[in-house]
Amino acid sequence: MNPRILVLAHNHPDLHPGGTEIFAHDLFGAYKRAGCDALFVGATNDVHRVRRPGTSFQAVNDSDDELLFWAGHFDRFNMSQTDLYAVVPAMTELLENFRPDIVHIHHLVLFGIELPMLIRRVLPDCKIVMTLHDYYQICPHDGLMIHRETRQRYLSADMSGDKCGLEGISTDRFAMRSVNIRNHLRAVDLFLSPSRFLQERYIEWGIDPHKIEVIHNGRPAVRAVRRRDHGTGGMPNVFGYFGNLNPWKGADVLLNACRKLMDDGVDFELRIHGGAPFQTAAFNEKIDKLFAQTSSHVVRLGAYDRDDIPELMAAVDWVVAPSIWWENAPLVIQEAFQHDRPVITSNIGGMAEMVRDGMDGVHVRPDDPGALARAMADCATNPKLWKKLSGNVRAPANIDDVAQTHLSRFRNLIRPDFVAA
């Protein structure tokens, strides 16, 4: 028989189409196609939904196996749910009614670090699996492991305000935060990581190396769009950026690189896809100024839907992923590879694992507009390089195959002789 699976994410892709939410929801769909009885619950707060008196649960769409869990009272520094009076009874009722064999957690933001212990108390025989999509348990600065002002990255798991820019918080509070979170995570039976880099960070932080393994993310199968017709003497010189604009995704680095390309007389076009939700006025002013300075070569196309990706990808030759933080498994890289587009990316974190430098993409030093400009200039003027790299692109694993890998691990957790129907 197949396990009964409760999937938990810190939002729903219909409300917030982030990479974690999209992957968690896609995997949920693959579990159902594999014959599993599965339920998806996405946490939300008053950013997306108003609280409804009398219940913590809300519908998100017409599906009867997808729910929203309103969890708006949350201490982000401690990853703690502060409204346990409402959350514990509601979550207990859900667990007792659905009675999953597996709870697959994709994030504890909004739910709270207390959730694994609650699951263990309510359902002692249930197995708890947690996919670690970022470094939020390690770093209270949104799991970025980067200083919020200086943009200095750090690798050490020993946190302090000096490292992440959260000034005014004592070192003891950072230490107690880590101890508390690690203690709660002891209830988790298996941790999964989409990259070796992230796995190593969590082992250094204190996760038992025998309880964490790597399973790479996958994507639903799509037909690759055709490559641009360069014609006689044409050049593969159209670049694409896909994703939200924020200080950590490197959009400002990319636009400054474009200024250098323009100064050097390079013939190119950059197409920017994505909005800038929830950003500061200072960041938006900075980005708007850079767009104005590069408007002759840069097209700002705004937010997009997932269904738009093939059409948008068809108009570019290269995808640029210039993040300055330790990205784990960017969705945009897999989307680019699904459509045979080579990727120019920062040579750090999971990005460096996903893109093979000189094989299916190009690595550049992060947060360095000059280095990025030189790489883009080489790509824009070298059709042989584009032909080589695009010819070596490998499509990501199919999400249904990835689901089967997960299910195999789940069955081993439940019992060694747990055989699928």
From TrEMBL:
It holds the Pfam family Glyco_trans_1_4. It comes from the Bacteria. One of its GO terms (molecular function) is glycosyltransferase activity. Residues 17-218 form the Glycosyltransferase subfamily 4-like N-terminal domain. Keywords: Transferase. This is Glycosyl transferase.
